[in-house]
Write a structure and sequence with these properties.
The structure holds two protein chains of two kinds. By secondary structure, chain A is α/β, with parallel strands linked by helices. Chain A contains ten helices and eleven strands. Chain A has one domain: 3-Layer(aba) Sandwich (Rossmann fold). In chain A, the strands form three sheets. In chain A, strands 2-1-3-4-8-7-11 form a seven-stranded mixed beta sheet, with helices on both faces. A two-stranded antiparallel ribbon of chain A has the order 5-6. Chain A has a two-stranded parallel ribbon with strand order 9-10. The chains are: A alpha/beta, B alpha/beta.
Chain lengths: ~280, ~375
């Protein structure tokens, strides 16, 4: 098989991109486009639903259906899109501020419902678009424009949160690992239920420089160093406190999706009506 | 035909009207005094191949119906005061995406949690101005249970034809009252569906900023690959920050409704031809006004009633025409400020003729209160 380029899914009129040098958005979008191609998905059967923030600029470069939604609510829009047409491949492309901070309620409920949608959550540790403020995923003690003396709060473990809420598929990768990203996105897209892929991504303009990673390369190296397999993570003392995180597929269940369960309920309703 | 009539609640008539219009998706969050609509949809939609979803909040409910509409469904939600406030951002998302959706706001007494089970009409301005930014919407107010059914159908028709969110806003009295209704037979009321594109897929544009235009609307999953965005965009729905484009984009949100004004603005006149005194009202106060006017007529006074069914766009020209010969114009409404009266004041040649009747304590406007203003 020829190497997938993902080109058919990229809107070239939208280029050059507006992300900062070293941003992970391009790598993640490229991995997604190649995953679409390798799965043979038709452009008209894909709907990408971005929110607002750096991740929300992704739609500029995509040649598929998209609904560019409001801040924090991408999953709620996606829920309606998918429920009304379960045949669609619906992908939410959101950030950590968007997806888990302002949008945390929708994230856990979409996971609980096991909506058959894929969420690619780009975690760059802060609100990049608005100047680098603290988010619900910013690590404790980290510096941001609203925590210049260190973050007094703790950040979410997004994968644990979504897994606990009932998602079928949960995975984490870094934006450094393009091929692994593509594999995880394919796994997420082919899971019938709710899938979350958290991508640890460099904010090379704001979060990195404020936290001792002066250049994009420093930030990428740091992500690479902090990404551990679940086995290595388990063997590392105080791993989470040192900023290490697990990468790979962390949960992969096959529970029925919302649409499957809804259809089964609908059949019961019709059978009951017919039997009367 | 069932000409005998069925005893039906206002909220039930709204749900049945929505189903009659072809609604196939409902997303909502429970709130008094609107919850019956959700409960009926949860039972009826699955039977018809539709989907009911109880969402985590009203923000999500509005988002979900916009998403479902983008997938091709006729979609709606129902709520009241606090929930309606939460829906505002996404009502404006439906405005800018030009997505057909219907929002039912069964008005209750506020502010905030207020009196959850009591009627009010204090959301008149919120219906129109509750959101940030330049935008136009349509809002309808029924006064009877039959009108709940008819205006629910009309709300979907307007939403589909003009690609605009339509708000149906009965007060709690109308939402909860029961009346005998002759349910329209299938085919009796007109049903309008959105216009679908017929052009080649590569040529489709989801928006058209020509003044008065309404672009055809494709559905996700059809042969058309297209975009929708809550941001300012060009006609291709790609981000666009050019001031000339923004001016065209914003103006068309208004001009499409101005072009359809005759179709959209609904009023009903009762003995308005010769009246010396005109009573203007919407929703349950119309009922009190008609009783008071009948009694005044019996006593030899020429009193007429103009019922506002479409509150937004405001029927200023219609009110001014009916009030032409009136010495006095009485505006009856369940709010403190006189939100409807303020609009009537703008449209009358001589606003000094206005008398206002207001309740703002969760009680209804009675014929007696209106009779006092007629005296």
């Amino acid at each position: 098989m020829a190497h997938a380029t993902g080109r058919a899914y990229i809107r070239r009129e939208g280029l050059p991109h507006i992300s900062c040098a070293g941003c992970g958005n391009g790598i993640i979008a490229g991995a997604m486009a190649r995953a679409f191609e390798e799965l043979g998905l038709a452009r008209n059967e894909i709907v990408v639903v971005p929110g607002i923030g750096c991740s929300g600029t992704i739609n500029r470069y995509l040649n598929v259906n998209y609904l560019h939604s409001t801040h924090g609510r991408a999953l709620a829009f996606a829920t309606g899109i998918k429920a009304a047409n379960p045949a669609l491949n619906v992908v939410c492309f959101v950030g950590d501020g968007d997806g888990v901070t302002i949008g945390g309620n929708h994230l856990i409920h979409a996971a609980r419902r096991n909506m058959g949608i894929t969420v690619i959550l780009v975690n760059n540790y802060n609100y990049g678009m608005t100047g680098g403020q603290v988010s619900g995923a910013t690590p404790a003690d980290a510096r941001t424009s609203t925590t210049m003396m260190g973050n007094p709060e703790r950040g979410f473990d997004i994968c644990e949160l979504v897994r606990a809420a009932g998602a079928n598929f949960v995975a984490r990768e870094t934006a450094v690992a393009g091929v692994r990203l593509k594999k995880r996105i394919k796994e997420a897209l082919t899971n019938p239920g709710f899938s979350l892929l958290e991508v640890m991504s460099p904010c090379t303009t704001l979060f990195g420089p404020r936290n001792g990673k002066k250049t994009p390369v420093d930030m990428l190296r740091w992500l690479k160093e902090k990404a551990l397999s679940p086995e290595k993570f388990a063997k590392t003392e105080n791993a989470a406190a040192q900023g290490y995180f697990r990468v790979g597929t962390l949960a992969d269940e096959r529970a029925d999706s919302f649409s499957t369960r809804y259809e089964a309920m609908r059949r019961r309703v019709l059978d009951a009506a017919g039997g009367r | 035909m069932n000409s005998v009539g069925t005893l039906m609640q206002g909220n039930e008539a709204i749900a049945k009207g929505a189903l009659y219009a072809g609604a196939s998706y409902y997303a909502g969050y429970p709130i008094t005094p609107s919850s019956e609509i959700a409960e009926i949809c949860s039972r009826e939609l699955p039977k018809r191949g539709g989907v009911f979803m109880q969402m985590e909040d009203e923000i999500a409910s509005m988002a979900a119906i916009i998403g479902a509409s983008a997938s091709g469904a006729k979609a709606f939600t129902a709520t009241s005061g606090p929930g309606f406030s939460l829906m505002q951002e996404h009502i404006s998302a439906a405005v800018i995406m030009e997505m057909p959706v219907v929002v039912v706001n069964v008005q209750r007494e506020g502010p905030c949690v207020g009196l959850a089970t009591k009627p009010a009409q204090a959301d008149i301005m919120q219906l129109r101005w509750g959101r940030h930014g330049d935008q136009a919407i349509v809002a309808l107010i029924p006064a009877t249970v039959r009108e709940c059914f008819e205006l629910a159908v009309k709300a979907f028709n307007i939403a589909e034809k003009y690609r605009v969110p339509v708000i149906l806003a009965p007060d709690e009295v109308v939402g909860h009252m029961r009346e005998s209704v002759v349910v329209p037979a299938p085919g009796e009321l007109e049903i309008v569906d959105r216009v679908r594109p017929t052009c080649a897929p590569g040529e489709y544009r989801p928006l058209d900023f020509t003044p008065g235009a309404v672009a055809p609307l494709a559905a996700f999953g059809s042969e058309y690959v297209f975009r929708m965005t809550a941001s300012m965009s060009g006609e291709d729905a790609c981000s666009n920050s050019d001031p000339a484009n923004a001016a065209r984009r914003v103006a068309q949100l208004y001009t499409k409704l101005e072009a359809g004004r005759e179709d959209i603005v609904l009023t009903r006149g009762y003995d308005t031809g010769d009246c010396d005194v005109l009573v203007v009202a919407a929703g349950s106060p119309v009922r009190a006004a008609r009783t008071a006017a009948r009694e005044a007529r019996a006593a030899g006074r020429k009193v007429g009633v103009l019922q506002i069914q479409t509150i937004w766009p405001f029927p200023g020209a219609e009110i001014n025409a009916c009030a032409a010969k009136a010495e006095r114009v009485v505006v009856a409404e369940m709010n403190y400020d006189g939100q409807i009266a303020g609009e009537v004041r703008k449209c009358l040649d001589d606003p000094s003729r206005i008398r206002t009747v207001n309740t703002f304590n969760g009680t209804i406007i009675t014929p007696g209160l209106i009779a006092e203003a007629l005296a």
